[in-house]
Amino acid sequence: MGAFDTWRFLAGLGIFLFAMYLMEESIRKLSGRAFKALIRRYTGSRWRALMTGTLSTAILQSSSAVSLMLLAFVGAGLMSMPHAIGVILGSNLGTTVTAWIVASVGFKVEIESIAMPLLGVGGLGMIFSGQSEKYANFSKLLLGFGFLFLGLDHMKGSIEMMAEQVDIVDYVDMGLWFFLLLGILLTALMQSSSATLAVVLTALYSNIITFDMGAVMVVGSNIGTTVTILLGALGGGKIKLRVALSHFIFNNVTGIIALIALPLLTGAVNAMLPVDQEPVLALALFHTFFNVMGILLFFPFIGLLARLLIHWVPDPKNTVSRYLIHTTSEVVEPAITAVEKEMDHFLELTMRHNLQILNIDETLIWPDTTEEGRKVRRTQSQQYERLKLLQAQIFKFTAEVQTHETTEQETARLSQYLHGARLLLHSAKIFKDIRHNFEDFQQSDSRFLRQAYSEFRRRFVDLSMQLARVLIQEDSSISIETYERLMAAVKQNDNSFIRSVSGVLKGAPSLTDVDISTAIIVNRSFIYACQHLIGAWHELSDHHLLSGAGKETERGTNDTEGGE
């Protein structure tokens, strides 16, 4: 036989990687939102998170796809860090399925008898599927499996040609560390542990390497996957870095233990499946063995690892966004949830901003407010600028989400949140612009203006207490009746104030013309600011956008954003 056919090997590797891409893409589209719902809903405990990570990775054939969804859910606050680590542990076990498929099918039967029918049916299905996206993706899945085995066949053929000219003795002196580094390097370069496993299994099948060499390369492939994830986490926020570090720690510590206990592990594998008779299947079993060992060692300490990661990688201080900075826009459902939570945060910040302008102690609304939080808000003179920045971040993130496939209902929800964000910033701007009027009222010689200032404070405290129920989850939704009642109360307060001004003028016209004009304009601005808050509050509820809701709150914004 001839020498090693480099181009045939590279072609086989390229076809194999392309097959993995086709399979991941088709399964992700076929599953649609099912796997996202699986990961989101069935991770309520660490055991369920572990099983979900295993199952989803085994079916999707991609730990990277699972990691992407995982980062999105953790960043959106839908999943805790301990449960995320549980999914990561499970995804490592799920990756072993690829090794079993390749080992049990790729080296046991005539590959062409499997690959050609899959390629034929899949290729023709892609051509004749017409407008049916479902059948096109199913055909793509068949095509992916066909290419997987075809690529494996080319790699196996090229290495078999090389096998007759290679003596294992030549490699023994290099030591197992060489093969460990080779496994790490191959995985880091190809960004696929599955491809590395296919190469290792093929080399073992062709007797180019020994079982121990292959086992060490498999350990190296597990370590190599952490390089890609760590690089992807750089610049991606603290949550993403924590998840990447948990994967790095688990794979590296498990790999080190596997190397130390290599004689015991290989002995256990040989006892169950003789290495000299079934080397390829035995290597797949070893891959599963040391991942299970790692899970058993780490599982009791998931909570401790999560706390350490939070301590090592703390959340950034004084950041404007609380959720969006940790969330990717690529996975729509958790991205929308992150926007919803950020809007709750935006509403709370706007209310605190307005309370601060009226010199109202925020602990009246949020009794558990920390002194550190109050100190930060007292020392930050640019609160309104921070609110503007947060609105810009929400708008930008929402635009990124809508570049991906969204349903009509999801698009409508995002539109509601954007409308609510505009209303909140309008409310904050109005309060900022009439701040000097409130200060003048408080220090005025006029008893009426001082009383008016006290009345503004009372009215806003009453409104804030009702709005805060959403934020502290005492009331998860807002009925139309509640919305209309709050709007009517604001309107009634407006009328009462105008009557009080008229009463003062009739009884003792002690107010100057400027005082009268200022009082009326400030009251009207205050009314608009309150209506904006109520409108934004309503947009965050579970109900659809009211017909006409917010029209009154938008009206007059341009000409009532400040007093005199």
Map the helices and strands:
Blueprint (H helix, E strand, L loop, with lengths): L5 H26 L2 H8 L4 H15 L2 H13 L5 H14 L1 H11 L4 H18 L4 H31 L5 H4 L3 H15 L2 H13 L5 H23 L4 H23 L1 H11 L6 H20 L3 H11 L19 H26 L13 H9 L3 H19 L6 H26 L1 H8 L4 H25 L8 H28 L5 H27 L11 H4 L10
Helix pairs in contact: 1-8, 3-5, 4-5, 5-13, 5-15, 5-16, 6-11, 6-15, 7-8, 8-11, 10-11, 10-12, 11-12, 11-15, 12-13, 12-15, 13-15, 14-15, 17-19, 17-20, 17-22, 19-20, 20-24, 22-23, 22-24, 23-24
In short:
The protein is mainly alpha-helical and 564 residues long.
What would you note in describing this structure?
The chain is an all-alpha fold and 564 residues long. It folds into two domains: 6-312, no CATH class; 324-554, Methane Monooxygenase Hydroxylase, Chain G, domain 1 (Up-down Bundle). Helix content is 76%, strand content 0%. The radius of gyration is 32 Å and the shape is elongated. It starts with 5 loop residues before the first helix and ends in a 10-residue tail after the last helix. Residues 543-564 have low confidence and may be disordered.
Mean pLDDT: 82
What's the domain count?
Answer: 2
Q: What's the number of helices?
A: 25
Order of helices and strands: HHHHHHHHHHHHHHHHHHHHHHHHH
Q: What percentage of amino acids are in beta strands?
A: under 5%
Largest sheet: none
Write down the Rg: 32 Å
The SS-based structural class is mainly alpha
**Low-confidence runs:** 543-564
Name the descriptors.
76% helix; mainly alpha; Methane Monooxygenase Hydroxylase, Chain G, domain 1; 564 residues; disordered C terminus; single chain; elongated
